[in-house]
Amino acid sequence: xxxxxxxxxxxxxxxxxxxxxxxxxRDADRDLFGDVAPGVALRPRVVEYHSVARGGALRHRDHYxxxxxxxxxxxxxxxxxxxxxxxxxxxxxxxxxFEAVGDAIIFVSHKYH
Length: 113
Fold this sequence. Notes:
Blueprint: E1 2-3, H1 9-13, H2 15-32, E2 48-49, E3 70-74, E4 104-108
Protein backbone atom coordinates (compact mmCIF):
# COMPACT_ATOMS: atom_id res chain seq x y z
CA UNK A 1 0.00 0.00 0.00
CA UNK A 2 1.24 3.48 -0.87
CA UNK A 3 -0.26 6.69 0.44
CA UNK A 4 -0.52 9.23 -2.38
CA UNK A 5 -2.16 12.04 -0.45
CA UNK A 6 0.30 12.60 2.40
CA UNK A 7 1.61 15.90 1.01
CA UNK A 8 -1.49 16.62 -1.13
CA UNK A 9 0.55 15.83 -4.24
CA UNK A 10 -2.20 13.63 -5.73
CA UNK A 11 -4.75 16.39 -5.32
CA UNK A 12 -2.36 18.95 -6.85
CA UNK A 13 -1.45 16.71 -9.80
CA UNK A 14 -4.95 15.40 -10.58
CA UNK A 15 -7.51 18.05 -9.52
CA UNK A 16 -9.96 17.11 -12.30
CA UNK A 17 -9.91 13.46 -11.21
CA UNK A 18 -10.51 14.45 -7.59
CA UNK A 19 -13.44 16.65 -8.72
CA UNK A 20 -14.93 13.74 -10.74
CA UNK A 21 -14.65 11.37 -7.79
CA UNK A 22 -16.21 13.88 -5.39
CA UNK A 23 -19.08 14.55 -7.81
CA UNK A 24 -19.62 10.81 -8.22
CA UNK A 25 -19.70 10.37 -4.44
CA ARG A 26 -22.21 13.21 -4.08
CA ASP A 27 -24.37 11.72 -6.88
CA ALA A 28 -24.22 8.26 -5.30
CA ASP A 29 -25.23 9.75 -1.96
CA ARG A 30 -28.24 11.46 -3.49
CA ASP A 31 -29.28 8.57 -5.75
CA LEU A 32 -28.40 5.50 -3.68
CA PHE A 33 -27.75 6.30 -0.03
CA GLY A 34 -30.66 8.60 0.82
CA ASP A 35 -28.65 11.84 0.94
CA VAL A 36 -26.88 10.96 4.20
CA ALA A 37 -24.33 13.79 3.89
CA PRO A 38 -26.04 16.73 2.16
CA GLY A 39 -24.24 19.45 4.15
CA VAL A 40 -20.86 17.78 4.43
CA ALA A 41 -18.00 19.42 2.52
CA LEU A 42 -16.46 16.39 0.83
CA ARG A 43 -12.70 16.20 0.37
CA PRO A 44 -10.20 13.37 0.03
CA ARG A 45 -9.08 12.16 3.45
CA VAL A 46 -6.69 9.51 2.14
CA VAL A 47 -5.63 8.43 -1.36
CA GLU A 48 -4.04 4.96 -1.39
CA TYR A 49 -2.64 2.71 -4.08
CA HIS A 50 -2.99 -1.01 -3.35
CA SER A 51 -1.17 -3.74 -5.22
CA VAL A 52 -2.26 -7.29 -4.43
CA ALA A 53 -0.11 -10.30 -5.27
CA ARG A 54 -1.22 -13.89 -5.85
CA GLY A 55 -2.88 -15.18 -2.69
CA GLY A 56 -3.11 -11.66 -1.27
CA ALA A 57 -6.00 -10.40 0.78
CA LEU A 58 -6.92 -7.71 3.22
CA ARG A 59 -5.59 -8.70 6.61
CA HIS A 60 -8.59 -7.48 8.56
CA ARG A 61 -11.87 -9.09 7.57
CA ASP A 62 -13.98 -6.50 9.38
CA HIS A 63 -12.19 -3.43 7.97
CA TYR A 64 -13.90 -0.11 7.39
CA UNK A 65 -12.64 3.40 6.66
CA UNK A 66 -12.98 5.21 9.95
CA UNK A 67 -13.11 8.99 9.65
CA UNK A 68 -14.36 9.01 6.06
CA UNK A 69 -17.86 9.63 4.72
CA UNK A 70 -17.56 7.76 1.42
CA UNK A 71 -14.99 5.41 -0.05
CA UNK A 72 -14.25 5.37 -3.78
CA UNK A 73 -12.36 2.34 -5.15
CA UNK A 74 -11.13 2.51 -8.75
CA UNK A 75 -9.87 -0.45 -10.81
CA UNK A 76 -6.49 0.38 -12.34
CA UNK A 77 -5.79 -3.02 -13.94
CA UNK A 78 -7.56 -5.02 -16.65
CA UNK A 79 -9.61 -7.81 -15.04
CA UNK A 80 -9.04 -11.07 -16.88
CA UNK A 81 -5.99 -9.66 -18.69
CA UNK A 82 -3.63 -8.32 -16.03
CA UNK A 83 -4.88 -10.76 -13.42
CA UNK A 84 -7.43 -13.51 -12.88
CA UNK A 85 -9.49 -14.30 -9.85
CA UNK A 86 -9.75 -11.96 -6.95
CA UNK A 87 -12.91 -10.54 -5.48
CA UNK A 88 -13.88 -7.20 -4.06
CA UNK A 89 -15.81 -8.06 -0.92
CA UNK A 90 -18.06 -5.62 0.90
CA UNK A 91 -21.06 -5.88 3.17
CA UNK A 92 -24.15 -6.06 0.97
CA UNK A 93 -22.25 -6.56 -2.29
CA UNK A 94 -23.23 -9.69 -4.18
CA UNK A 95 -20.41 -9.80 -6.73
CA UNK A 96 -17.26 -8.03 -7.88
CA UNK A 97 -18.32 -4.73 -9.49
CA PHE A 98 -15.15 -4.25 -11.54
CA GLU A 99 -15.28 -5.27 -15.18
CA ALA A 100 -12.80 -2.85 -16.81
CA VAL A 101 -10.06 -0.34 -16.13
CA GLY A 102 -11.56 2.81 -14.67
CA ASP A 103 -14.60 1.14 -13.13
CA ALA A 104 -15.33 2.52 -9.69
CA ILE A 105 -17.40 1.56 -6.70
CA ILE A 106 -18.60 4.11 -4.17
CA PHE A 107 -19.92 3.13 -0.78
CA VAL A 108 -20.45 4.63 2.65
CA SER A 109 -17.18 4.24 4.50
CA HIS A 110 -18.59 2.58 7.60
CA LYS A 111 -19.43 -0.58 5.58
CA TYR A 112 -17.08 -3.49 6.12
CA HIS A 113 -15.02 -4.24 3.01
